[in-house]
Specification:
Structural class: alpha/beta
Shape: globular
Largest sheet: 8 strands, mixed
Strand content: 5-15%
Radius of gyration: 20 Å
Oligomer: single chain
Amino acid sequence: MKKKFKILSIDGGGIKGVFPAFYLALIEQELAKRDDGKTKIKDHFDLITGTSTGGIIALALSLGIPAKEIYELYLKNAKCIFGNKKSFFFGQLYNSAHERDFLEKLVRDKFREYYNGEDPRIKDCLTNVAIPIYDLIKGNPSVIKSPYHPNFKRDLHIPAYKVAMATSAAPTYFDPYSSDYIDLDGMERPFKNKVDGGIMANNPTIIGILEATKTFGKNLSDLEILSLGTGYKKFTEGDSNRKEWGLLYWMKKDKRKRLIELFMQSQSQLVENYISLLYQGVDKTEKDNPNFVYDRINVLLCEDDLIEMDESDSERIKSFAELALAEFHEKGTNILKNHFY
């Protein structure tokens, strides 16, 4: 049987990344029982793509970091990452809500731990990665890629932790990421004003499909895709008489950043719709003979489940992560069968 090209895709969502991280930790718990040595997520995919928090997770997995450690990293450090949120009127009017220093050190130290105390670069990823960002210098979206094509020479020098900071630099939450690095030939290169890839690819599954078909030359029938969300709540507004549609409504009312929610959820939903078209045809007319293997793990959130992307309360975050346990109990056997055996 022809070997499938396997893609793992992980959505953005801030601290809600505990959902895919915990789900993958549960998978690795099962993989630990294998006797062929393939006990980590990286051993089972040809390409991992992730946006924002999903980008951090994707890079960590590609370096061989266990999903359980990624989950615990988020859970134990959420208070330090998001606990010193600036007030809206006196802090966030002119500045981002959070400082990045703690998160950057946390991610950098974890990546170094799995690369002999040095900073791994994109070329050092043990699985191919594709990490979307937005480049404010050039004014266009970009995808940071490991060198899985002879023409991909731009990104291989970049330290992985800097890419992680760039893809997670969500507007209003963190400042755009700006830094420099020394390339493999000893030249200093700028890496300035990079913004969260979630503004255009919060669900990066379509990036994985395009890379597989155009860069790796695979057919749709060759693909085997596992796509992980971070939970979603349908964005609705039923008050047709509402007259106050200003900044207060979109960015502050009930402590919700509705504008951010709207563009992230709408993009993710659009990608799901288009993948459904590729997967099962128009109106699912090809449902009985789908074009590739595809599983989407996500959960519709009720009001009690919903947490903000910068939630810092560990008990609320832990409760949110438990939603992954329920999903795994329901679908885990099939997911393991479809993608890991």
